[in-house]
Design goal:
mainly alpha; about 65% helix
Length: about 160
């Protein structure tokens, strides 16, 4: 029986390049430790580990050149639309959490992600997000007295102590 030829997985070549870059970074860190004059020097282990990682990455990249292209692309197989949008919303939430503070950033994030994943009903998404933020505020701020990030952007706009 003829063995079916393996196809390259979506993102496999990109992973090889990322691994190669990271291994070069590990090697650079080993050199930065300023200790390559003896076998027991502090930079030898990171340099050796980085060299093994770089060799592995190069082997992966060379092997992938011989494989046929994947049937499905990265976007359809590894990162479908729902996951990609969710990751983008989480990244945006992380960016606005410090300037806007916990309450407003979480309200916006939950509203957006509920609205997107549910597929409509902005009013319902906003209401559910508002109830969630109020419950989290009561539980964490009032019962457990956890300090939630206040944000600096609206400090002069909102009345003092409103979200405490």
């Amino acid at each position: 029986m003829a063995e079916a030829r393996r196809r390259r997985e979506p993102g496999e070549t990109l992973f090889g390049f990322v691994l190669l870059l990271l291994s070069l970074g590990v090697m650079a860190e080993g050199v930065r430790l300023q200790g390559l004059e003896a076998v027991s020097a502090p930079g030898i282990m990171p340099l050796a580990a980085g060299a093994v990682m770089a060799a592995s990455a190069l082997a992966i990249l060379l092997r992938n050149r011989a494989l046929s292209a994947p049937e499905a692309g990265f976007a359809t197989r590894i990162a479908p639309r729902d996951i990609a949008v969710s990751v983008a919303l989480i990244a945006a939430y992380m960016l606005v959490l410090e300037p806007l503070g916990f309450h407003l950033a979480t309200l916006g994030f939950l509203t957006a992600i509920i609205w997107f994943l549910r597929g409509g009903g902005f009013g319902f998404a906003l209401l559910l997000a508002l109830v969630s933020v109020v419950v989290v505020h009561v539980v964490f701020r009032m019962i457990f007295t956890v300090v939630l990030p206040q944000g600096w952007l609206l400090r002069g706009v909102l009345p003092p102590g409103l979200l405490q």
